[in-house]
Description:
alpha/beta, eight-stranded parallel beta barrel, two-stranded antiparallel ribbon, 17 helices, globular, binds flavin mononucleotide
Amino acid sequence: MAKSYTAIAQLKTAERFREHIASLGIKLDFEEDLQSGDDSPLAQPYTLKTGRKIGNRFSILPMEGWDGTLDGKPSEHTIRRWKHFGQSGAKLIWGGEAVAVRHDGRANRNQLLINDANLSGFETLRDTLMQAHTESFGSTDDLLIGLQLTHSGRFSRPDPDKLLKPSILYHHPPVEAIYNTDPDLPVMTDDEIDELIEEYVRAARQAYELGFEFVDLKHCHGYLGHEFLSAYSRPGKYGGSFENRTRFLRELVTKIRAAVPDLMMGVRVSIIDYPPYREGEDGISRPITYRDENGEYPFAFGGNSDKADEIDLTEPNAFLELLRTLDIELVNITVGSPYYNPHVTRPAMFPPSDGYAPPEDPLVGVARHVNTVAQLKANFPDLAIVGSGYSYLQDWLPYVAQHTVRSGMVDFVGLGRMVLTYPEMPADVLQGNKLQRKRICRTFSDCTTGPRNGMISGCFPLDDYYKALPEADAVKAVKQSIKS
Ligand SMILES: Cc1cc2nc3c(=O)[nH]c(=O)nc-3n(C[C@H](O)[C@H](O)[C@H](O)COP(=O)(O)O)c2cc1C
């Protein structure tokens, strides 16, 4: 039988929330009184080394909607989402959403694609966000907007046929078993990687010309950038040693800086990784037990190759040190992959349709995010670090956020799923408005179940706009068919 967990909505007092945290044996601190106005820790500006000021400590995480056109332009759903990013009140817009630098690297047939033909679509997205922000908050002077650049690697599904068309750096048998990847599929050659780097440089220049102040060189969630970090078994200049596994990043930074010197760069990184999880016949989810011929699990960057679900921060620390030496100040920390261990990346009460019953109280997952970031922040006080994975905190999100920012455990609190249901949460917190409980994300995971079944993403249970779309019934039907 799958375990059941106490719903956050039931933990209505600080005392109950604290007792529940204690019962889980985790460290997750929060403040009991929310501060608003200029004195709030979350309202404090952050000044980057360049002198660029970011107006407060809320960040909107990249959130794609699987809702672009087949040729990679934004649709009205995409524009609405970016408008909400602007209305949120958050002053750091981390990437908007994943944007493929090349067609073959699109994670789905509706992912945005940056190329000559699509530039005006990106202009519309940025303008819409800026205008919405100006209308709500008067000025965009302290608003920083970046664009997330990506290639989806082994999770590329670029075409209308919806088929997985993986570009891989090395063979990863346990993940390939789940996704039926051909064990003889050739890996990308070094020359192909070098060509791809040129596409990133072109995309970065285009982003800069469109007015984006930074690009995120995405290194997370199992996509190509992240896969480099665990390419231990790959021969040649992009695999094996730490130096080789980070060559892609170093090349990107050097070449983009040479081409567009005034463009800032940031990196969103899955700083730790885990093996895939599967649900057993007993309803309990566990990590798979794959071992190579040396008895190791050799695929988890930031993991322990002997003990598959333990963390080892040696290489993550080296990675942040590398970012520091590359003069990259903007760092966004996430964990794991939503494909093979969604409970790690996005703690949720209800799994997506391709997921499994949560193997731990989702608050344990939130604490893993928060405490891992705090450890790294302590080692790298001069990096501007965004934390992820806060949405499961629901009503308690601002209370934990106020604590983590005040105590220097993180610089910016990133909002992912929460921005789909309740984009104005940051504005309400900062202005001292009562939180709108009915709009708080309850982590139903419909925003993932939709796309996993070929549909757009959105909050079908709580957002009236999505409730009224035919996809809302289709997502319900998918969930019903899983239950029965
Ligand atoms: C529907 C959906 C779309 C997402 N799109 C992206 C994306 O485009 N790029 C990215 O780096 N992460 C993406 N993520 C991950 C989120 O940015 C975030 O890391 C995750 O949801 C955990 O944060 P949260 O607890 O605030 O939701 C997405 C997550 C969801 C649920």
